[in-house]
Amino acid sequence: MSPNSTAEKLEQLFGSFRAESLRDNIYSLFNEPEYFYYLEAPKSCVLIGGRGSGKTTVLRCMSYEGQAALGKIDLLQPKYVGLYTKINTNTVASFKGAELTQDAWQRFFGHFLNLMLCEEAVSYIRWLKEQRKESQVDKNVSYQRVGRVLGLNKCETLDEFADEVENARVNLEVFINNFGNTKPTVSPLQTPIDIIMEELGKIDGHSNAIFFIILDEYENFLDYQQRLVNTLIKHAGKNYYFKIGVRELGWRERTTLNHSEVLISPADYERIRIEEKLEKDFSSFAKRVCEARLKAADLEDFGPPIDVETLLPGMTVKDEAIALGVDRHVEEFKSHLKKSSKTVRLLELHDHELFVFQELSRRNFNKAIEDLDDYYLGVKPAVNKYENYAYSMLFSISGKGAKITKYYCGHSVLSKLTHQNIRFYMQLVNECIREQIGVEKSTSQPIDPQQQTIAARKVGLSYLRELEGVSTQGGSLAKLLLGLGRVFQLMASNPIGGKPECNQFELSEEQVSPKEHAEVKTLLTEAVMHLALVRTPGTKLTTDSDIRSWDYAPHPIFAPYFGFSHRRKRKMKVAENELIALTHKPQETVRKLLGQRAELADEALPVQMSMFDEYFR
Amino acid sequence: MNTFADSGIYSPPHKVHSTREDVAFDTNAILMFGHSETRSELPHSWLTQFSAQKVFQITEGTDDGQVLIDHLPGKSFSLRDNADLRQWINDCKESLIYLDITGLGHQVWMPLLRMIVESGKKVQCLYTEPDVYTPSPNPKPGDFFDLSERTTGFKPVPTFARIPRRANTPSLLIPLLGYEGARFKHLIETVEPSDADIFPIVGVPGFEIDYPFHTFEGNAGALSSTRAWQRVDYVDAACPFSVYGHIERLRGEWPGRGIQVATIGTKPHALGAMLYALRDSSCDILYDHPVRKPGRTRGSGKCHLYDISSFQSLGQ
Questions:
Q1: Contacts of A94 in chain B (CB under 8 A)
Q2: Rounded to two decimals, what is the model's pTM?
Q3: Claim to verify: residue B308 and residue B255 sit in the same structural domain
Q4: A86 found inside a domain
Q5: End of a domain among A396, A428, A455?
Q6: Whole domain around residue B195: which residue ranges?
Q7: What is the pLDDT of residue A499?
Q8: Which of A415, A463, A587, A589 can pair with A283 through a Cys bridge, CB separation 3.0 to 4.6 Å?
């Protein structure tokens, strides 16, 4: 097999990271995550996860088509039937405008939802008839009853019902394009869904089946539409439940149409945050997913696949220091140590240990020797000092202009870069293998840390560029990240005199105008929702809506590209107006954020960022 | 000499004038226009050809989907509850309407044009190229012009909303590409098409000889990540009728599939897509409603005159 065809094969399995692009492969490559068990329970669930966290894959695998492809559905007596719908932004946005009152929009939108569900039900029954090769599976279903509650003309058979639903859809479409036209008959909220589901329960063998109404990309609903669907969720439960897929912070409305009624977990639904559920297990989940794909790649003569941990070896801090060239920094210091019998024993220490104390003493050898003596003897403060700085000092070893200023390698580190995001992990493995093929090595051999680092940078850059398109705020998100990334990169490569491993920020108390505050709130919400930033509860009591009560950091996937630590350690304060300024006056604001170290902003960009030279000029 | 039209190879109902000043109008006509940039200002020569009562400036109202017409002060017309607007068009004594789309957003000129076409009046559209696009003060790779502040997101253009039926096969996505790669990326993110279903169109020949290269550079990221570069096709940037023909050809090649055309490129391309959507109810127009930056273009270039009614009569 040629390297090209191998790359192509891997690209098909790893390169198509979106569930949408995998088409039917989505099922054969599916690996059940631990939380799948909760989703299958007879209860409404809200599955919350960032872009690429695997929501769509999981939800589509719950659909009847998915269950059939996985060989998990009993066609004669299914345990559950999942009716999957992805919420289409362009369609739901049609149900808004100054021409109608909110109340009227709610009624038309409720009618649209009823029709949408009917279409799903029709598709299921047609599919089931085909699968079971029985035309009478729906003999007990009263289409007339469903049609009546929807305000349709008389219909007795499935085909008649489908035609009537189609007519109702067209009537609604005509109306929302010109409200002067005759108003279509509008069906009420909830009752039609109850009746549709009751009738679906009359299909042969379905009397004990539970129906799951799966709504993916719930964030696309407008606010009033979310309240409307929340109402349906609140009152679900006879023989059907809702399974909702939504992005972090995309579930904006928690009340029902009755503003004093709130959806409560676990009473009304089970809240499943993918990030939390996978936190402990992510590394092994990622390993399972990747190994299944490597196996499916069937690389034949290019070398049998090896396990992911062997494929992606990591490095210890000391090995990394050596690889970065720490020895040349301590040559002079070591010559100095050799001169005295009192200090010669310190030569037993690792070059990186010598380097850390040398740099912390700002190259005052005598001061460094004092600390090293304590360190050598295991004196606690000195040992702590080394441990506190050992990692952060790695960023300053190779010096400006080096090709690699920090390694990002090993299955464990790469999983941490993804922050429990399976799509990022696949991208990292795919990119690593491409690098390996690029240097004409086999996938049976471990991938060199340098190749892994270059691959991780590419993934970071690729997502940085993708960010522009993730939302209507995409351009600002990319600029915000470029600004923050530059600040943290400069702080990382100049650890002495600043905060080591500073890669988080919290908002300072400075007041800004309500307009600016709203702008920052939107920017930060979008940034978290689309994985430009990650947030963790700060020191104050946190609520979702209070942006000041959280700490923020660039998503760790960007760490290798900019060259700062992927570990969450220390934070700085940023004013709200500085965040906005980062998006349109980058260089000036970077200087301001660096405070007394503003001159660092004049340093040349690292090699991998040179394409942004003009942007930071 | 860049476009087919420059070389004298016209789709029949397309005339090109070197400047806006050069356009000669038929009598017994009215002119509707919007003003947003230098290139959409009315030249003196136009004002000498129309009496003031026959020139109507259209501006957007404060609410989405509402427009104001300068000769009818105090009255706001809804583009979605549009009986009044249709009536006003029908009541015009003149049989020919010139609609200058240069300074109007898609969300305004598309429904207006639809109503004019459906009224049975003759209509010709005008479009003026800019002299130059304004470069960005902080350029990033692939992002070198300062065109839009942001977009407000995908939502239907009034009168073009579709409630798609549940389809077993996904629609084809035809992005009409412009310079702003972020808009193409956002389209991909919103629609989430299968890579193989994306059929991008680049305007070639462009308004200027280098423009297609900017288009490729601006959209390189998304073209590469979706591998859609393999299916890029080229259609004259200034010719709506060629876009129409191109979509029609794709429709023939992919029977039974829905079509989504994203109008994120040149206005003449958007015009072609809109004309196609009028004829094919399975064609959905996708538009992300960009907020244009003030001063995004400077000066004005060639002026195109498209005889929509003649084109439509060709197919009848």
A1: 155-156, 161, 163
A2: 0.86
A3: no
A4: yes
A5: A396
A6: 135-292
A7: 82
A8: A415
